[in-house]
Protein backbone atom coordinates (compact mmCIF):
# COMPACT_ATOMS: atom_id res chain seq x y z
CA UNK A 1 0.00 0.00 0.00
CA UNK A 2 2.88 2.33 0.86
CA UNK A 3 4.57 1.73 -2.50
CA UNK A 4 1.28 2.38 -4.29
CA UNK A 5 0.85 5.69 -2.47
CA UNK A 6 4.45 6.63 -3.31
CA UNK A 7 3.88 5.87 -7.00
CA UNK A 8 0.73 8.01 -6.96
CA UNK A 9 2.63 10.83 -5.25
CA UNK A 10 5.46 10.68 -7.82
CA UNK A 11 2.95 10.64 -10.69
CA UNK A 12 1.15 13.73 -9.32
CA UNK A 13 4.45 15.55 -8.84
CA UNK A 14 6.19 14.58 -12.10
CA UNK A 15 3.37 14.26 -14.65
CA UNK A 16 0.99 16.98 -15.73
CA UNK A 17 -0.90 14.38 -17.70
CA UNK A 18 -1.42 12.34 -14.53
CA UNK A 19 -2.69 15.38 -12.63
CA UNK A 20 -5.07 16.36 -15.41
CA UNK A 21 -6.12 12.76 -15.82
CA UNK A 22 -6.94 12.44 -12.12
CA UNK A 23 -8.91 15.72 -12.22
CA UNK A 24 -10.88 14.66 -15.27
CA UNK A 25 -11.42 11.21 -13.81
CA UNK A 26 -12.71 12.74 -10.58
CA UNK A 27 -15.15 14.89 -12.55
CA UNK A 28 -16.35 11.83 -14.41
CA UNK A 29 -16.65 9.87 -11.15
CA UNK A 30 -18.72 12.61 -9.48
CA UNK A 31 -20.99 12.82 -12.50
CA UNK A 32 -21.40 9.06 -12.42
CA UNK A 33 -22.22 9.14 -8.67
CA UNK A 34 -24.83 11.87 -9.29
CA UNK A 35 -26.45 9.84 -12.04
CA UNK A 36 -26.43 6.64 -9.95
CA UNK A 37 -27.96 8.37 -6.90
CA UNK A 38 -30.62 10.05 -9.03
CA UNK A 39 -31.48 6.73 -10.59
CA UNK A 40 -31.63 4.97 -7.21
CA UNK A 41 -33.82 7.63 -5.59
CA UNK A 42 -36.05 7.85 -8.65
CA UNK A 43 -36.47 4.10 -8.56
CA UNK A 44 -37.31 4.24 -4.84
CA UNK A 45 -39.92 6.98 -5.11
CA UNK A 46 -41.44 5.57 -8.29
CA UNK A 47 -45.01 4.50 -7.66
CA UNK A 48 -45.43 6.51 -4.41
CA UNK A 49 -48.05 8.72 -6.07
CA UNK A 50 -49.88 5.64 -7.22
CA UNK A 51 -49.71 4.32 -3.64
CA UNK A 52 -51.29 7.54 -2.37
CA UNK A 53 -54.11 7.18 -4.91
CA UNK A 54 -54.51 3.55 -3.93
CA UNK A 55 -54.77 4.52 -0.25
CA UNK A 56 -57.39 7.11 -1.11
CA UNK A 57 -59.42 4.50 -2.97
CA UNK A 58 -59.31 2.33 0.17
CA UNK A 59 -61.00 5.12 2.11
CA UNK A 60 -63.65 5.44 -0.58
CA UNK A 61 -64.23 1.68 -0.66
CA UNK A 62 -64.59 1.61 3.14
CA UNK A 63 -67.45 4.08 3.09
CA UNK A 64 -68.92 2.46 -0.01
CA UNK A 65 -69.00 -0.91 1.73
CA UNK A 66 -70.74 0.62 4.75
CA UNK A 67 -73.30 2.30 2.48
CA UNK A 68 -74.05 -0.91 0.53
CA UNK A 69 -74.59 -3.09 3.64
CA UNK A 70 -77.03 -0.48 4.98
CA UNK A 71 -79.19 -0.92 1.82
CA UNK A 72 -80.84 -4.35 1.64
CA UNK A 73 -80.96 -4.37 -2.13
CA UNK A 74 -77.20 -3.73 -2.41
CA UNK A 75 -75.89 -6.13 0.24
CA UNK A 76 -74.91 -8.75 -2.37
CA UNK A 77 -72.93 -6.06 -4.20
CA UNK A 78 -71.24 -5.21 -0.88
CA UNK A 79 -69.49 -8.64 -0.95
CA UNK A 80 -67.84 -7.74 -4.30
CA UNK A 81 -66.75 -4.43 -2.85
CA UNK A 82 -65.18 -6.24 0.13
CA UNK A 83 -63.18 -8.49 -2.25
CA UNK A 84 -62.06 -5.49 -4.28
CA UNK A 85 -60.98 -3.68 -1.09
CA UNK A 86 -58.96 -6.69 0.03
CA UNK A 87 -57.10 -6.96 -3.29
CA UNK A 88 -56.16 -3.30 -3.22
CA UNK A 89 -55.09 -3.50 0.41
CA UNK A 90 -52.83 -6.48 -0.31
CA UNK A 91 -51.33 -4.66 -3.32
CA UNK A 92 -50.64 -1.58 -1.19
CA UNK A 93 -49.09 -3.73 1.53
CA UNK A 94 -46.69 -5.43 -0.95
CA UNK A 95 -45.71 -2.11 -2.50
CA UNK A 96 -44.89 -0.47 0.85
CA UNK A 97 -42.83 -3.44 2.02
CA UNK A 98 -40.88 -3.41 -1.26
CA UNK A 99 -40.28 0.35 -1.53
CA UNK A 100 -40.09 1.44 2.13
CA UNK A 101 -37.96 -1.16 3.83
CA UNK A 102 -36.22 1.51 5.97
CA UNK A 103 -39.52 3.25 7.01
CA UNK A 104 -40.60 1.39 10.19
CA UNK A 105 -43.51 3.74 10.98
CA UNK A 106 -45.06 3.27 7.55
CA UNK A 107 -44.58 -0.48 7.75
CA UNK A 108 -46.25 -0.55 11.19
CA UNK A 109 -49.11 1.67 9.98
CA UNK A 110 -49.95 -0.57 7.00
CA UNK A 111 -49.69 -3.56 9.36
CA UNK A 112 -52.29 -2.00 11.68
CA UNK A 113 -54.62 -1.36 8.72
CA UNK A 114 -54.22 -4.93 7.46
CA UNK A 115 -54.79 -6.41 10.94
CA UNK A 116 -57.85 -4.21 11.57
CA UNK A 117 -59.27 -5.25 8.21
CA UNK A 118 -58.72 -8.93 8.75
CA UNK A 119 -59.86 -8.97 12.38
CA UNK A 120 -62.80 -6.58 12.37
CA UNK A 121 -63.95 -4.79 9.24
CA UNK A 122 -64.10 -7.75 6.82
CA UNK A 123 -66.06 -10.09 9.26
CA UNK A 124 -68.45 -7.29 10.18
CA UNK A 125 -69.02 -6.40 6.50
CA UNK A 126 -69.81 -10.00 5.58
CA UNK A 127 -72.16 -10.41 8.60
CA UNK A 128 -73.90 -7.12 7.83
CA UNK A 129 -74.33 -8.20 4.19
CA UNK A 130 -76.20 -11.24 5.50
CA UNK A 131 -78.63 -8.96 7.45
CA UNK A 132 -77.07 -8.99 10.95
CA UNK A 133 -78.24 -5.72 12.54
CA UNK A 134 -75.67 -5.81 15.39
CA UNK A 135 -72.85 -6.26 12.93
CA UNK A 136 -74.20 -3.38 10.90
CA UNK A 137 -74.28 -1.06 13.93
CA UNK A 138 -70.81 -2.10 15.06
CA UNK A 139 -69.42 -1.63 11.52
CA UNK A 140 -70.96 1.85 11.31
CA UNK A 141 -69.04 2.81 14.44
CA UNK A 142 -65.73 1.09 13.42
CA UNK A 143 -65.40 2.30 9.81
CA UNK A 144 -64.49 5.94 10.73
CA UNK A 145 -61.70 4.65 12.99
CA UNK A 146 -60.48 2.35 10.19
CA UNK A 147 -60.51 5.23 7.68
CA UNK A 148 -58.44 7.26 10.14
CA UNK A 149 -55.82 4.49 10.13
CA UNK A 150 -55.79 4.59 6.32
CA UNK A 151 -55.31 8.37 6.44
CA UNK A 152 -52.26 7.81 8.63
CA UNK A 153 -50.80 5.49 6.01
CA UNK A 154 -51.37 8.11 3.33
CA UNK A 155 -49.70 10.78 5.48
CA UNK A 156 -46.67 8.58 6.12
CA UNK A 157 -46.31 7.81 2.39
CA UNK A 158 -46.39 11.52 1.57
CA UNK A 159 -43.79 12.26 4.28
CA UNK A 160 -41.47 9.48 2.98
CA UNK A 161 -41.82 10.78 -0.58
CA UNK A 162 -41.01 14.36 0.47
CA UNK A 163 -38.02 13.21 2.51
CA UNK A 164 -36.55 11.30 -0.43
CA UNK A 165 -37.05 14.23 -2.80
CA UNK A 166 -35.37 16.62 -0.34
CA UNK A 167 -32.43 14.22 0.06
CA UNK A 168 -32.04 13.97 -3.73
CA UNK A 169 -32.20 17.77 -4.10
CA UNK A 170 -29.54 18.33 -1.43
CA UNK A 171 -27.25 15.64 -2.82
CA UNK A 172 -27.47 16.97 -6.38
CA UNK A 173 -26.70 20.48 -5.16
CA UNK A 174 -23.63 19.34 -3.22
CA UNK A 175 -22.33 17.27 -6.15
CA UNK A 176 -22.93 20.11 -8.59
CA UNK A 177 -21.02 22.50 -6.35
CA UNK A 178 -18.09 20.04 -6.10
CA UNK A 179 -18.10 19.52 -9.89
CA UNK A 180 -18.10 23.26 -10.56
CA UNK A 181 -15.27 23.80 -8.08
CA UNK A 182 -13.23 20.91 -9.53
CA UNK A 183 -13.85 22.21 -13.06
CA UNK A 184 -12.45 25.59 -12.06
CA UNK A 185 -9.41 23.97 -10.50
CA UNK A 186 -8.90 21.83 -13.62
CA UNK A 187 -9.16 24.90 -15.85
CA UNK A 188 -6.60 26.67 -13.69
CA UNK A 189 -4.28 23.63 -13.92
CA UNK A 190 -4.68 23.50 -17.69
CA UNK A 191 -3.75 27.14 -18.05
CA UNK A 192 -0.86 27.13 -15.62
CA UNK A 193 0.67 23.74 -16.36
CA UNK A 194 -0.19 23.24 -20.05
CA UNK A 195 -1.29 26.38 -21.91
CA UNK A 196 1.34 28.78 -20.54
CA UNK A 197 4.29 26.38 -20.97
CA UNK A 198 3.19 25.56 -24.51
CA UNK A 199 2.87 29.25 -25.30
CA UNK A 200 6.38 29.81 -23.94
CA UNK A 201 7.73 26.96 -26.07
CA UNK A 202 5.98 28.33 -29.17
CA UNK A 203 7.38 31.81 -28.57
CA UNK A 204 10.88 30.42 -28.09
CA UNK A 205 10.57 28.30 -31.26
CA UNK A 206 9.59 31.37 -33.28
CA UNK A 207 12.56 33.25 -31.87
CA UNK A 208 14.91 30.40 -32.81
CA UNK A 209 13.43 30.26 -36.32
CA UNK A 210 14.59 33.87 -36.75
CA UNK A 211 18.19 32.89 -36.02
CA UNK A 212 18.48 33.79 -32.32
CA UNK A 213 19.93 30.81 -30.44
CA UNK A 214 20.32 32.48 -27.02
CA UNK A 215 16.68 32.08 -26.02
CA UNK A 216 15.82 29.55 -23.30
CA UNK A 217 12.51 28.42 -21.80
CA UNK A 218 11.93 28.78 -18.06
CA UNK A 219 9.51 25.92 -17.54
CA UNK A 220 11.94 23.07 -16.76
CA UNK A 221 10.08 21.17 -14.05
CA UNK A 222 9.95 17.38 -13.74
CA UNK A 223 6.69 16.96 -15.64
CA UNK A 224 6.36 16.25 -19.37
CA UNK A 225 6.41 19.87 -20.52
CA UNK A 226 9.32 20.57 -18.18
CA UNK A 227 11.24 17.69 -19.75
CA UNK A 228 10.34 19.06 -23.17
CA UNK A 229 11.64 22.46 -22.06
CA UNK A 230 14.96 20.96 -20.95
CA UNK A 231 15.19 19.03 -24.22
CA UNK A 232 14.42 22.22 -26.14
CA UNK A 233 17.15 24.11 -24.31
CA UNK A 234 19.61 21.28 -24.97
CA UNK A 235 18.63 21.19 -28.64
CA UNK A 236 19.12 24.95 -29.00
CA UNK A 237 22.53 24.64 -27.40
CA UNK A 238 23.51 21.89 -29.80
CA UNK A 239 22.23 23.88 -32.78
CA UNK A 240 24.24 26.90 -31.64
CA UNK A 241 27.31 24.69 -31.34
CA UNK A 242 26.61 23.21 -34.77
CA UNK A 243 26.38 26.65 -36.34
CA UNK A 244 29.68 27.50 -34.74
CA UNK A 245 31.31 24.67 -36.70
CA UNK A 246 29.18 25.03 -39.80
CA UNK A 247 32.07 25.39 -42.22
CA UNK A 248 33.63 22.14 -41.07
CA UNK A 249 30.29 20.42 -41.37
CA UNK A 250 29.73 21.81 -44.85
CA UNK A 251 33.13 20.61 -45.98
CA UNK A 252 32.52 17.21 -44.45
CA UNK A 253 29.13 16.89 -46.07
CA UNK A 254 30.59 18.01 -49.39
CA UNK A 255 33.12 15.19 -49.20
CA UNK A 256 30.36 12.76 -48.33
CA UNK A 257 28.29 13.95 -51.29
CA UNK A 258 31.31 13.59 -53.56
CA UNK A 259 31.85 10.04 -52.35
CA UNK A 260 28.14 9.33 -52.75
CA UNK A 261 28.20 10.68 -56.32
CA UNK A 262 31.20 8.52 -57.17
CA UNK A 263 29.44 5.55 -55.61
CA UNK A 264 26.27 6.26 -57.58
CA UNK A 265 28.28 6.58 -60.80
CA UNK A 266 30.02 3.28 -60.02
CA UNK A 267 26.71 1.57 -59.26
CA UNK A 268 25.10 2.98 -62.39
CA UNK A 269 27.99 1.92 -64.57
CA UNK A 270 28.07 -1.51 -62.94
CA UNK A 271 24.33 -2.05 -63.30
CA UNK A 272 24.44 -0.99 -66.96
CA UNK A 273 27.30 -3.35 -67.74
CA UNK A 274 25.78 -6.26 -65.81
CA UNK A 275 22.43 -5.84 -67.56
CA UNK A 276 23.94 -6.33 -71.04
CA UNK A 277 22.29 -9.05 -73.10
CA UNK A 278 25.59 -10.56 -74.30
CA UNK A 279 27.14 -10.74 -70.83
CA UNK A 280 29.91 -13.30 -70.31
CA UNK A 281 31.76 -14.48 -67.24
CA UNK A 282 34.97 -12.71 -68.24
CA UNK A 283 32.98 -9.45 -68.57
CA UNK A 284 31.60 -9.91 -65.05
CA UNK A 285 35.15 -10.52 -63.82
CA UNK A 286 36.32 -7.25 -65.42
CA UNK A 287 33.43 -5.39 -63.77
CA UNK A 288 34.28 -6.85 -60.37
CA UNK A 289 37.91 -5.81 -60.75
CA UNK A 290 36.75 -2.25 -61.48
CA UNK A 291 34.62 -2.30 -58.33
CA UNK A 292 37.55 -3.67 -56.29
CA UNK A 293 39.77 -0.85 -57.52
CA UNK A 294 37.16 1.90 -56.96
CA UNK A 295 36.30 0.75 -53.43
CA UNK A 296 39.89 -0.18 -52.53
CA UNK A 297 38.93 -3.78 -51.85
CA UNK A 298 40.92 -6.98 -52.12
CA UNK A 299 40.27 -9.77 -54.58
CA UNK A 300 36.97 -11.66 -54.89
CA UNK A 301 35.51 -14.88 -56.22
CA UNK A 302 32.05 -16.24 -57.09
CA UNK A 303 31.19 -19.84 -56.17
CA UNK A 304 27.98 -21.56 -57.32
CA UNK A 305 26.19 -24.60 -55.87
CA UNK A 306 24.06 -26.41 -58.42
CA UNK A 307 20.73 -27.72 -57.07
CA UNK A 308 21.90 -27.15 -53.50
CA UNK A 309 24.82 -29.59 -53.81
CA UNK A 310 28.11 -29.00 -52.01
CA UNK A 311 30.97 -28.49 -52.50
CA UNK A 312 30.33 -25.45 -54.66
CA UNK A 313 32.59 -24.58 -57.57
CA UNK A 314 34.13 -21.23 -58.55
CA UNK A 315 32.86 -19.74 -61.80
CA UNK A 316 34.98 -16.57 -61.76
CA UNK A 317 37.47 -14.80 -59.52
CA UNK A 318 40.93 -13.26 -59.25
CA UNK A 319 42.12 -14.73 -55.95
CA UNK A 320 45.81 -15.37 -55.60
CA UNK A 321 46.86 -18.94 -54.67
CA UNK A 322 47.61 -17.89 -51.08
CA UNK A 323 44.20 -16.20 -50.79
CA UNK A 324 42.47 -19.26 -52.26
CA UNK A 325 44.29 -21.44 -49.74
CA UNK A 326 43.34 -19.08 -46.90
CA UNK A 327 39.69 -19.25 -47.95
CA UNK A 328 39.11 -22.84 -49.03
CA UNK A 329 41.83 -24.39 -46.87
CA UNK A 330 40.42 -23.04 -43.61
CA UNK A 331 36.69 -23.10 -44.34
CA UNK A 332 34.40 -25.50 -46.14
CA UNK A 333 31.64 -24.41 -48.53
CA UNK A 334 28.95 -24.85 -45.87
CA UNK A 335 30.70 -22.28 -43.68
CA UNK A 336 30.88 -19.77 -46.53
CA UNK A 337 27.19 -20.22 -47.41
CA UNK A 338 26.21 -19.85 -43.76
CA UNK A 339 28.24 -16.64 -43.40
CA UNK A 340 26.66 -15.24 -46.57
CA UNK A 341 23.26 -15.24 -44.84
CA UNK A 342 24.51 -12.76 -42.23
CA UNK A 343 24.39 -8.99 -42.87
CA UNK A 344 27.72 -7.41 -43.80
CA UNK A 345 27.65 -5.25 -40.67
CA UNK A 346 27.54 -8.36 -38.46
CA UNK A 347 30.31 -10.00 -40.47
CA UNK A 348 32.51 -6.93 -40.15
CA UNK A 349 31.79 -6.60 -36.43
CA UNK A 350 32.68 -10.25 -35.78
CA UNK A 351 35.96 -10.09 -37.76
CA UNK A 352 39.41 -9.52 -36.25
CA UNK A 353 40.34 -5.89 -37.11
CA UNK A 354 44.07 -6.72 -37.11
CA UNK A 355 43.73 -9.53 -39.67
CA UNK A 356 42.58 -9.57 -43.25
CA UNK A 357 38.80 -9.74 -43.36
CA UNK A 358 36.68 -11.80 -45.72
CA UNK A 359 33.10 -10.75 -46.43
CA UNK A 360 30.57 -13.15 -47.95
CA UNK A 361 27.70 -12.01 -50.18
CA UNK A 362 24.78 -14.29 -51.13
CA UNK A 363 24.34 -15.08 -54.82
CA UNK A 364 21.11 -16.31 -56.43
CA UNK A 365 17.51 -16.41 -55.31
CA UNK A 366 16.57 -20.08 -55.64
CA UNK A 367 17.87 -23.59 -55.25
CA UNK A 368 18.70 -23.71 -58.97
CA UNK A 369 21.21 -20.87 -58.64
CA UNK A 370 22.61 -20.55 -55.17
CA UNK A 371 26.07 -19.33 -54.38
CA UNK A 372 28.32 -17.00 -52.45
CA UNK A 373 30.75 -14.24 -53.28
CA UNK A 374 33.75 -13.98 -50.91
CA UNK A 375 35.48 -10.57 -50.96
CA UNK A 376 38.81 -9.90 -49.27
CA UNK A 377 39.14 -6.62 -47.34
CA UNK A 378 42.60 -5.20 -46.98
CA UNK A 379 44.16 -5.72 -43.55
CA UNK A 380 43.56 -2.79 -41.20
CA UNK A 381 41.02 -1.18 -43.53
CA UNK A 382 37.69 -0.19 -42.02
CA UNK A 383 34.37 -0.95 -43.68
CA UNK A 384 32.18 2.18 -43.59
CA UNK A 385 28.46 1.75 -43.78
CA UNK A 386 28.19 3.42 -47.20
CA UNK A 387 30.86 1.12 -48.63
CA UNK A 388 29.07 -1.89 -47.15
CA UNK A 389 25.84 -0.81 -48.86
CA UNK A 390 27.66 -0.42 -52.19
CA UNK A 391 29.21 -3.89 -51.83
CA UNK A 392 25.78 -5.38 -51.05
CA UNK A 393 24.26 -3.63 -54.07
CA UNK A 394 27.05 -4.84 -56.37
CA UNK A 395 26.55 -8.36 -55.03
CA UNK A 396 22.85 -8.07 -55.79
CA UNK A 397 23.60 -6.92 -59.35
CA UNK A 398 26.06 -9.78 -59.87
CA UNK A 399 23.46 -12.20 -58.55
CA UNK A 400 20.88 -10.85 -60.99
CA UNK A 401 23.37 -10.99 -63.85
CA UNK A 402 24.22 -14.64 -63.17
CA UNK A 403 20.50 -15.43 -62.85
CA UNK A 404 19.82 -13.71 -66.19
CA UNK A 405 22.67 -15.64 -67.81
CA UNK A 406 21.21 -18.86 -66.43
CA UNK A 407 17.74 -17.99 -67.72
CA UNK A 408 19.16 -17.06 -71.14
CA UNK A 409 20.98 -20.39 -71.24
CA UNK A 410 17.76 -22.19 -70.33
CA UNK A 411 15.91 -20.35 -73.10
CA UNK A 412 18.63 -21.29 -75.57
CA UNK A 413 18.45 -24.90 -74.42
CA UNK A 414 14.67 -24.94 -74.84
CA UNK A 415 14.99 -23.41 -78.31
CA UNK A 416 17.52 -26.08 -79.32
CA UNK A 417 15.30 -28.82 -77.92
CA UNK A 418 12.31 -27.48 -79.82
CA UNK A 419 14.35 -27.38 -83.02
CA UNK A 420 15.58 -30.95 -82.48
CA UNK A 421 12.03 -32.08 -81.74
CA UNK A 422 10.92 -30.52 -85.01
CA UNK A 423 13.75 -32.36 -86.83
CA UNK A 424 12.70 -35.61 -85.13
CA UNK A 425 9.14 -35.12 -86.32
CA UNK A 426 10.35 -34.43 -89.86
CA UNK A 427 12.56 -37.55 -89.82
CA UNK A 428 9.70 -39.64 -88.52
CA UNK A 429 7.19 -38.31 -91.03
CA UNK A 430 9.49 -38.53 -94.07
CA UNK A 431 12.63 -40.69 -94.00
CA UNK A 432 11.34 -43.20 -91.43
CA UNK A 433 8.20 -43.84 -93.43
CA UNK A 434 10.20 -44.10 -96.67
CA UNK A 435 12.58 -46.64 -95.12
CA UNK A 436 9.65 -48.60 -93.75
CA UNK A 437 8.08 -48.62 -97.21
CA UNK A 438 11.37 -49.77 -98.77
CA UNK A 439 11.65 -52.59 -96.24
CA UNK A 440 8.21 -53.83 -97.24
CA UNK A 441 9.05 -53.64 -100.93
CA UNK A 442 12.37 -55.49 -100.46
CA UNK A 443 10.52 -58.19 -98.51
CA UNK A 444 8.06 -58.54 -101.41
CA UNK A 445 10.98 -58.62 -103.87
CA UNK A 446 12.72 -61.30 -101.81
CA UNK A 447 9.69 -63.57 -102.01
CA UNK A 448 9.67 -63.33 -105.83
CA UNK A 449 13.37 -64.24 -106.35
CA UNK A 450 14.85 -67.71 -106.51
CA UNK A 451 16.97 -68.24 -103.38
CA UNK A 452 19.65 -69.93 -105.49
CA UNK A 453 20.42 -66.78 -107.51
CA UNK A 454 22.74 -63.86 -106.78
CA UNK A 455 19.76 -61.51 -106.90
CA UNK A 456 18.37 -63.15 -103.78
CA UNK A 457 21.64 -62.49 -101.93
CA UNK A 458 21.56 -58.87 -103.06
CA UNK A 459 17.96 -58.57 -101.84
CA UNK A 460 19.05 -60.04 -98.48
CA UNK A 461 21.84 -57.48 -98.25
CA UNK A 462 19.44 -54.67 -99.12
CA UNK A 463 16.99 -55.87 -96.50
CA UNK A 464 19.68 -56.00 -93.80
CA UNK A 465 20.98 -52.58 -94.80
CA UNK A 466 17.51 -51.07 -94.70
CA UNK A 467 16.80 -52.67 -91.30
CA UNK A 468 20.06 -51.31 -89.91
CA UNK A 469 19.38 -47.86 -91.36
CA UNK A 470 15.84 -47.90 -90.02
CA UNK A 471 17.03 -48.96 -86.56
CA UNK A 472 19.71 -46.25 -86.48
CA UNK A 473 17.17 -43.69 -87.68
CA UNK A 474 14.80 -44.65 -84.85
CA UNK A 475 17.64 -44.23 -82.36
CA UNK A 476 18.46 -40.86 -83.92
CA UNK A 477 14.83 -39.77 -83.57
CA UNK A 478 14.86 -40.94 -79.94
CA UNK A 479 18.06 -38.97 -79.37
CA UNK A 480 16.60 -35.83 -80.94
CA UNK A 481 13.54 -36.14 -78.71
CA UNK A 482 15.67 -36.50 -75.59
CA UNK A 483 15.06 -33.66 -73.14
CA UNK A 484 16.85 -32.55 -70.00
CA UNK A 485 14.08 -30.85 -68.06
CA UNK A 486 14.17 -28.80 -64.88
CA UNK A 487 15.10 -31.90 -62.84
CA UNK A 488 18.58 -31.66 -64.34
CA UNK A 489 21.27 -33.83 -65.86
CA UNK A 490 21.31 -36.50 -63.15
CA UNK A 491 17.60 -37.28 -63.57
CA UNK A 492 18.01 -37.58 -67.37
CA UNK A 493 21.01 -39.87 -66.86
CA UNK A 494 19.06 -42.11 -64.48
CA UNK A 495 16.21 -42.39 -66.98
CA UNK A 496 18.68 -43.33 -69.77
CA UNK A 497 20.26 -46.05 -67.60
CA UNK A 498 16.82 -47.42 -66.71
CA UNK A 499 15.76 -47.41 -70.38
CA UNK A 500 18.79 -49.40 -71.60
CA UNK A 501 18.70 -51.74 -68.60
CA UNK A 502 15.26 -52.78 -69.80
CA UNK A 503 16.41 -53.07 -73.41
CA UNK A 504 19.52 -55.11 -72.55
CA UNK A 505 17.72 -57.41 -70.15
CA UNK A 506 20.19 -56.81 -67.29
CA UNK A 507 20.89 -53.80 -65.05
CA UNK A 508 23.47 -51.30 -66.25
CA UNK A 509 25.69 -50.23 -63.36
CA UNK A 510 26.02 -46.45 -62.87
CA UNK A 511 28.70 -44.69 -60.82
CA UNK A 512 28.23 -40.91 -61.11
CA UNK A 513 30.68 -38.57 -59.36
CA UNK A 514 29.63 -35.45 -61.27
CA UNK A 515 28.04 -33.81 -58.21
CA UNK A 516 29.24 -30.23 -57.74
CA UNK A 517 30.43 -29.80 -61.33
CA UNK A 518 28.45 -27.45 -63.59
CA UNK A 519 27.87 -28.41 -67.21
CA UNK A 520 26.25 -26.13 -69.74
CA UNK A 521 23.08 -27.28 -71.43
CA UNK A 522 25.04 -28.12 -74.60
CA UNK A 523 27.60 -30.16 -72.62
CA UNK A 524 24.90 -32.07 -70.77
CA UNK A 525 23.16 -32.97 -74.05
CA UNK A 526 26.38 -34.19 -75.75
CA UNK A 527 27.39 -36.30 -72.73
CA UNK A 528 23.95 -37.94 -72.61
CA UNK A 529 24.05 -38.65 -76.34
CA UNK A 530 27.54 -40.22 -76.18
CA UNK A 531 26.30 -42.48 -73.37
CA UNK A 532 23.16 -43.39 -75.32
CA UNK A 533 25.15 -44.09 -78.51
CA UNK A 534 27.57 -46.35 -76.62
CA UNK A 535 24.76 -48.22 -74.83
CA UNK A 536 22.90 -48.52 -78.14
CA UNK A 537 26.00 -50.19 -79.69
CA UNK A 538 26.14 -52.57 -76.74
CA UNK A 539 22.49 -53.46 -77.34
CA UNK A 540 22.88 -54.03 -81.08
CA UNK A 541 26.34 -55.52 -81.46
CA UNK A 542 28.08 -56.52 -78.22
CA UNK A 543 26.06 -59.49 -77.00
CA UNK A 544 27.23 -58.50 -73.50
CA UNK A 545 26.03 -59.78 -70.14
CA UNK A 546 27.24 -56.78 -68.08
CA UNK A 547 27.63 -53.07 -68.78
CA UNK A 548 28.61 -50.04 -66.71
CA UNK A 549 28.78 -46.26 -66.91
CA UNK A 550 31.40 -44.53 -64.72
CA UNK A 551 31.74 -40.74 -64.50
CA UNK A 552 34.80 -39.34 -62.73
CA UNK A 553 36.14 -35.83 -61.98
CA UNK A 554 39.81 -35.21 -61.15
CA UNK A 555 41.35 -32.45 -59.05
CA UNK A 556 41.59 -30.18 -62.09
CA UNK A 557 37.83 -30.54 -62.74
CA UNK A 558 38.43 -32.64 -65.87
CA UNK A 559 35.50 -35.01 -66.54
CA UNK A 560 35.86 -38.56 -67.87
CA UNK A 561 32.88 -40.71 -68.90
CA UNK A 562 33.65 -44.45 -69.36
CA UNK A 563 31.09 -46.88 -70.86
CA UNK A 564 32.24 -50.50 -70.71
CA UNK A 565 30.83 -53.98 -71.45
CA UNK A 566 32.07 -57.61 -71.49
CA UNK A 567 30.75 -58.36 -74.97
CA UNK A 568 32.40 -59.78 -78.06
CA UNK A 569 34.38 -56.62 -78.89
CA UNK A 570 35.37 -55.49 -82.38
CA UNK A 571 38.26 -54.27 -84.50
CA UNK A 572 38.21 -50.42 -84.57
CA UNK A 573 40.05 -50.50 -87.91
CA UNK A 574 37.38 -52.63 -89.60
CA UNK A 575 34.15 -50.81 -88.89
CA UNK A 576 31.56 -51.33 -91.65
CA UNK A 577 31.10 -48.39 -93.97
CA UNK A 578 27.48 -47.81 -92.99
CA UNK A 579 28.19 -47.68 -89.21
CA UNK A 580 28.76 -44.12 -87.99
CA UNK A 581 28.35 -44.50 -84.20
CA UNK A 582 32.01 -44.09 -83.22
CA UNK A 583 32.50 -41.26 -85.71
CA UNK A 584 29.54 -39.38 -84.27
CA UNK A 585 30.85 -39.87 -80.74
CA UNK A 586 34.30 -38.56 -81.75
CA UNK A 587 32.63 -35.51 -83.30
CA UNK A 588 30.77 -34.85 -80.07
CA UNK A 589 34.04 -35.15 -78.12
CA UNK A 590 35.61 -32.53 -80.40
CA UNK A 591 32.62 -30.22 -79.88
CA UNK A 592 33.16 -30.55 -76.12
CA UNK A 593 36.83 -29.68 -76.54
CA UNK A 594 37.90 -33.19 -75.43
CA UNK A 595 38.75 -36.54 -76.91
CA UNK A 596 37.27 -40.05 -77.25
CA UNK A 597 39.27 -43.24 -76.74
CA UNK A 598 38.18 -46.82 -77.54
CA UNK A 599 39.64 -49.92 -75.86
CA UNK A 600 38.43 -53.17 -77.45
CA UNK A 601 39.36 -56.44 -79.01
CA UNK A 602 37.63 -59.63 -80.15
CA UNK A 603 36.31 -61.42 -77.09
CA UNK A 604 37.66 -58.73 -74.73
CA UNK A 605 34.68 -56.43 -74.43
CA UNK A 606 34.69 -52.70 -75.19
CA UNK A 607 35.42 -49.57 -73.15
CA UNK A 608 34.70 -46.10 -74.57
CA UNK A 609 36.07 -43.14 -72.62
CA UNK A 610 35.04 -39.50 -73.18
CA UNK A 611 37.38 -36.92 -71.57
CA UNK A 612 36.86 -33.15 -71.54
CA UNK A 613 37.06 -30.06 -69.33
CA UNK A 614 33.74 -28.23 -68.77
CA UNK A 615 33.42 -24.74 -70.19
CA UNK A 616 32.95 -23.26 -66.70
CA UNK A 617 36.55 -24.24 -65.88
CA UNK A 618 38.00 -23.15 -69.20
CA UNK A 619 37.29 -19.43 -68.69
CA UNK A 620 40.40 -17.32 -69.18
CA UNK A 621 41.78 -15.94 -65.91
CA UNK A 622 41.94 -12.12 -66.02
Characterise the protein shown here.
This protein has 622 residues and is of the alpha+beta class. It is built from 17 helices and nine strands. The protein has a five-stranded mixed β-sheet. Strands 2-1-4-3 form a four-stranded antiparallel β-sheet, with helices on both faces. Helix 8 (246-274) runs antiparallel to helix 9 (281-294) and helix 13 runs antiparallel to helix 14 (454-480). The longest helix has 77 residues, at 133-209. The model has no long low-confidence stretch (mean pLDDT 76).
Radius of gyration: 55 Å
Mean pLDDT: 76
Q: Give the N-to-C terminal Cα separation.
A: 79 Å
Quick one: overall form? elongated
% residues in beta strands: 5-15%
Tell me the number of strands.
9
Q: H/E series, N to C? A: HHHHHHHHHEEHHHEEHHHEHEEHEE
Number of discrete helical segments: 17
Poorly predicted ranges: none
- Which secondary-structure class do the elements indicate? alpha+beta
Strand order of the largest sheet: 5-6-7-9-8
The main pleated sheet reads as: 5 strands, mixed
Helix content: 55-70%
